[in-house]
Write a structure and sequence with these properties.
2 domains; 8 helices
Chain lengths: 222, 222
Amino acid sequence: MRTLHHLWLSAASRKVRIVLGEKKVAFRLEAEKTWERRPEFLALNPAGDVPVLIEPEGQALADQGAICEYLEEVFPEPSLIGNEPKERAEVRRLCAWFDQKFEAEVTRFLVTEKLMKRFLGLGEPDSRAIRVGLQNLTSHMAYLSWLTERHHWLAGGVFSLADIAAAAQISCIDYVGDIDWEQYPHVKDWYAKMKSRPSFRPLLGDHIPGAPPPKHYADLDF
Amino acid sequence: MRTLHHLWLSAASRKVRIVLGEKKVAFRLEAEKTWERRPEFLALNPAGDVPVLIEPEGQALADQGAICEYLEEVFPEPSLIGNEPKERAEVRRLCAWFDQKFEAEVTRFLVTEKLMKRFLGLGEPDSRAIRVGLQNLTSHMAYLSWLTERHHWLAGGVFSLADIAAAAQISCIDYVGDIDWEQYPHVKDWYAKMKSRPSFRPLLGDHIPGAPPPKHYADLDF
């Protein structure tokens, strides 16, 4: 059995959880308090972050992007990156957009300020950081609207890792209650499809003690 | 002929230039002033950053990671990511380390403060930001020392994209003169091998008007 070291509101960890679910690979979750910087965990991943996937024979794989590419190579069905090189380049471009740009411009601000700071006793949320995160969220939701108006899935007609990367981020932001879904009907339709996938359901059951999600978070009809 | 939209001290652009060189793919360079946010360029890459590779038939590919994976798929020889999935996961983990972690913790601070601010007329360098960048550089050079003491190349016995990702970052920092090479003999040996590769030579000829590199920058024997 594989083990995934993760954090509940780490979008990178959520992305790998969904990929494992899509590929029907069994795994157990192990929450890692990355801020404690345990030497045993740093030995698995010197970057000190989650996710880290432990393979059955014990090898540790780190970095969400490297893990997803690895899973695609070892479990090619169903394909999540596509077949043609240009199609694959577009899936990977969108993954980088959500994994890196959305994470840095939105999730890091909102999840850190609204949840992690309180959780770690680091003081009050910084309202300026929250304002920046919310402002950036508006641009990103506009881009997601543009994409979902044009195609059934983000990279085109086929479900892919790009949808998983985006939904992993969106699910963290939706947990802290920051998305006004009525403003984004196409994104809402897309996210409703994501929520109804069996691979996504476990994320909707996530529940951080002392910081419950809004009621609509787990609703398939939101 | 392909066109690569780039910036001289964008490590991501340098990485793609080296990959194109290793795979002996002809291309012309086009410098893009990304800060001007030209609508024509944003139409090629809504993220607005470089590198962007224009394929011969005109399609634009964006995001350095997606471009490198694409080039590996379309020009598989020489292989830069390796053959076995676990080996490939290690190459990609190290790429993420340098592309993202080193970039965010070191290059963004030092290159932005020392060159881009002056170049764009954004005022004096922020000495605190430079101090943070230099401090982070020390940790990263220690990690590079650890890697280069153990193996011939960063991911093991074989030259890979990990070496390219790291050397692309290091070359930007070396351009601004911040590496005390005498402190890091193993990294120096590794970087000397990188500098002598034909794919790397064009980068050593880069010369930003008004901000020349230190003399040792282009020396193969530094």
